[in-house]
Amino acid sequence: MSQLVDRYVATVLRSIPESKKADTRAELATSIEDAIEGLVEAEGRDREEVEREVLNDLGDPARLASEFSGRPQWLLGPPYYQAWQRLLRKLLAIAPPIAGVANGVVRYVSGDDLLASFFGGIGVAFWVALNVLVWVTVGFVIAERSEDVKKDIEPFTKWSVDRLPAVPDRQISYGETIGAVVMLVFLIVVFLVQRQIQPEPFFDPSAWTLALPVLIGLLAVSALFEIVKYKAGMWSTRLALANAALNTVFAGWFVWFLLNDDLINPAFFENIGFPGVDTEVSRWMAAGVILVSVWDTVEGFVGASKARRGRA
Amino acid sequence: MVHTMDESLIASLRQEIRRGSVVLACLLALRQADYGYSVLRVLEQSGIGVEANTLYPLLRRLEKQGLLSSEWVTDDPRPRKYYQTSALGAEVAALLVDEWDAVGSALQHLKKGEED
Fold first, then answer.
1. Residues near A301 by beta carbon (within 8 Å), at least 6 away in sequence
2. Which residues of chain B have a CB within 8 Å of the CB of A64?
3. Is-contact A64 B57, C-beta < 8 A?
4. Does residue B1 have a pLDDT over 70?
5. Following CA atoms B62, B67, B70, B76 in sequence, which dihedral angle do they give, to the nearest 10 degrees?
6. Which residues pair with A90 in a beta bridge?
7. This prediction's pTM
8. Are B78 and A34 within 8 A, CB to CB?
């Protein structure tokens, strides 16, 4: 046996189970020699040239070894591809944004500047996304190679008509609308009633000249917008843009006054025994307002894109 | 859009049709015991083209499934592993031949219907 053939056979054997090695070595080596000899005799060609041709035709030794041992030559086959994709989509839509936003908010509130918090959050989101991708894939790759696991996860991977998504005629439900309107009206009432707290109200009394009346006005507009949304039933790009504009104005106005320390009454916290925390409370509230507004804005655009594709 | 005969498409469709025939061809050819390279030649000569890197693993698989039996023969200049269709393999081959004929006659039927 020539050196080239020897090397080829040895490479194939590397990933053949120990118990099959001797058998495979003998059979493969004989088959290769037979082929070479056959071609040399039949066509009178140079042995070295024929050797190369025969081995090239047999192809990648790793592939041949996989074929011999019946191992799958793919990472994820058709039985799991769809389930893998579904799970990955769901997790990637949820985990990285939540982790990123939470990290960004905590950074910002604990004193990082806005840019550092923003990019810190992005970094964490990216890291979480990468981990989700790797571990979900590793899980499925293992499942693909284990009959036991295959059986265990069958209820989650098997498709039936029960999985068909519903095709509802509206995205914005009655209950959601009522809930949102009640919440907004409740906030307006809180804004008005806190004036009565003695001896010092929560919001700075000087804010009533401009900041608070406009905020209450914006809350009222938001309540009206909820009703417009309900009437429409489905999100549309126009509705999502209007929602984004309303959120931007509301959050911009609110956060501007919060971060300038014009909104919260320092005397209120002095009075209840936490002097000096008003700046920190302002920052937390600002973060909360931005979060809720961004969430609500994104929800609008996601809803619009789903409505466009005809599913809810 | 005008579609023309795409050679690579034709080749892949042809290969798809022929793929299933290799197992049956092996089971029929190996009613007479034979070894790897020789099976390759026999199939080639009878018009069933199959690559060596497909055939050798296939022989192993059929052996594992009990459709072929094997025996090492050391009388030849090289020790050779001879495969032979087992009793089970012969039964399966008979079923597969029926299946092949059924597909063939169904296709004939469809072809005639088209010509009418």
1. A240, A244
2. 53, 56-57
3. yes
4. no
5. -80
6. none
7. 0.63
8. yes
